[in-house]
Amino acid sequence: MPVHNPEIAETFNKYADLLEIDGANQFRVRAYRTAGRTILDLSQNLYDMVKEGKDLSELPGIGKDLANKIIEMVRTGRLSQMEELKKTVPIELLDMMDIADLGPKRIARLHQELGISTIKELEASAREKKIRELPGYGEKIEQAILDDITRKGKARGSKERLKLSAVESATESLLSYLRKIKGVKKVTAAGSYRRRMETVGDVDILVTHTGDSDVMERFVKYEDVDRIIAKGETKSTVVLRFGLQVDLRAVSGESYGAALHYFTGSKAHNIAIRQMGVKKNLKINEYGVFKGKKRIAGKTEEEVYEQVGLPYIEPELREQRGEIEAAREGRLPRLIEIRKIRGDLHSHTNNTEGRNSIEEMAEAAQKKGYEYLAITDHSKRLSMTHGLDEKRLEEQIEEIDRLNRKLKDFTLLKGIEVDILEDGSLDLNNSVLKKLDLLVCSVHHKFNLSQKKQTERIIRAIESSPVFTILGHPTGRIIGEREPYDVNMEQLMKVARDRNCALELNAQPERLDLNDIYCKMAKDMGVMIVISTDAHSTAGLDLMRFGIYQARRGWLESNNVLNSRNGKELQELLKK
DNA sequence: GCCGTTTTCGGCCCGACTGTTTTCAGTCG
Fold first, then answer.
1. Is nucleic acid strand B under 7 Å from A98's C-beta?
2. If DSSP codes are grouped into helix, strand and coil, which group holds residue A208?
3. Which nucleotide lies at the shortest CA–C1' distance from A67?
4. Which of residues 163-202 of A touch strand B (CB under 7 A)?
5. Helix axes A5-21, A26-40, angle to 10 degrees
6. Which tens digits make up the pLDDT trace of A116-158?
7. How many beta carbons lie within 10 A of that of residue A524, not counting itself?
8. Does domain A338-575 have CATH number 3.90.180.10?
9. Protein-proximal positions, strand B, CB < 7 A
10. A5-156 fold
11. How many CB atoms neighbour CB A518 within 10 A?
């Protein structure tokens, strides 16, 4: 079984943690983490790259040494150096890294002085009040450790990242609460929330205010606050009732842009920008851009970028995935905006598992200003959704034709979300499929085929489809619940490009499939993307914004997105 | 361990808050 990129990245990260506890050089530790990051951002499989003999040391942050370690992991599935280190630094110590206030230094001390290796032993020592005896420790840290162990015992995985959609409403309510406080001027959510990442670990909020406002006081007294982790003049941290951590930072108007840039991240992007600053003899922090002691910029983000010779970079691009080089060379993308979307190409009705009728869906889409909506109910294999067989699909086609004669300036497209069976054939006969405008072809079962079989299965479906084809949620992943199935995406995209098949970016917040990295890959390879809501009700059509966020993170411009075309252009493309 | 628009050796991003201290280490982002 080939090793996957995330496993290699994970091994590097674990090794970095162990090294840190072992007291290794911090820059060596950082090198492993940087490499882990690079690997996670890779669109290509390291396994394939090694097989093809590609030079891994050309990847950023990966030199000769780490390249060889990757090759070892691909070939043997393990890292011998890791096994060595584990002999002196027990791997169980890493579990303690999740405990609040415990980091590598304190864990090393607990291990050396008290012989603690597991969370169980840690808890016992804390209860026996042994930890407070150690130099640098005290009662409060001991208690904080105990509290955190108890809390985590109750709610395992409470530190998990939450889906963007899940934090959106809580964050927006908090923002409007803060905006109403007297003396508060600007309030902005920064961090991964502003970069529109599919999941958010915590929310960073930035405020500017007149010096005499009591914004920090009011923040920690917000009704949804469960506990306060820190409270200071310029920075406070709380945890809200459903587990979301929120940081609030207060800065002066002079520093607003620098702070916004700083707290928006990503960390990797910020580091790269600050390094560019260092080369120009500038110090960049959250208060501004400084030449010696003199602040020369910081009021807006544009000013900060200008100082390092770059144009403004959109938050969604700030991931250190080539955006700085693109900015320098004047080839930043003009990211797609939601107002460019002219229709939705994946929706369900109450003929299968949807809630609303075709007519209601059409009305809702029209109300959004769309020119078209594709009705794509499930096919018969998905019996639990009461999927359509050939006869019922024929009836639906007739119903849509009838409705289209009534509709003005709006077209219902006839489609189906047809199951791709295990052998790559489609779930319905071609005789009825060819009467449709388009197919959304999706995999809904047999997720665990080998990469080769899964890829061949999907390619066969694309090649045998009698009309325009969209590959629905192309990796099948459900965020936090189901891993993507194993496909050779490069091969798939090549076929899609050559056969004029589009790949879907499914806007359901738990799917967002394709992910950002694959969106960029599709763009680079010239594959058309469709952003679809997969709506199961009229309200579901509103999920489009999540698809747009992901598309922007994937560098997509409106000309990369099929449903930014108007009705006429689309109809012509579908006929090809 | 990586990397080079001052460099193949000597650098490697920056600051707030807390707890334990009496000037700072550790954690966190």
1. no
2. strand
3. B1
4. 191, 202
5. 170
6. 988 889 998 888 888 888 888 888 888 888 888 887 765 544 4
7. 11
8. no
9. 1-3, 5-6, 11-21, 25-29
10. DNA polymerase; domain 1 (1.10.150)
11. 23
In whole angstroms, what is the distance from residue A490 CA to residue A424 CA?
A: 18
Give residues 202-221 of chain A lying near strand B (Cβ < 7 A): 202, 204
Residue A329 exposed, middle or buried by CB count within 10 Å (0-12, 13-18, 19+):
exposed
Across the beta sheet with A468-471, the strand order is: A343-344, A372-378, A411-419, A438-442, A468-471, A502-506, A529-532
The model's pLDDT over A377-433, given as tens digits with 9 standing for 90+, comes to: 999 988 878 899 999 999 999 999 999 999 999 999 999 999 999 999 999 999 999
Tokens of A459: 């390619």
Residue A482 Cβ < 7 Å to strand B: no
Does any strand B atom come closer than 7 Å to the Cβ of A513? no
For residue A566, the one-letter residue type is N
In chain A, where does the domain assigned CATH 3.20.20.140 lie? 338-575
Q: What's the pLDDT score for residue A353?
A: 84
Tell me the nt nearest to A38, Cα to C1'.
B2
Strand A411-419 to A372-378 pairing: parallel
pTM for the model stands at 0.84
Cβ contacts of A133 within 8 Å, gap of 6 or more: none
CATH of domain A162-250: 3.30.460.10
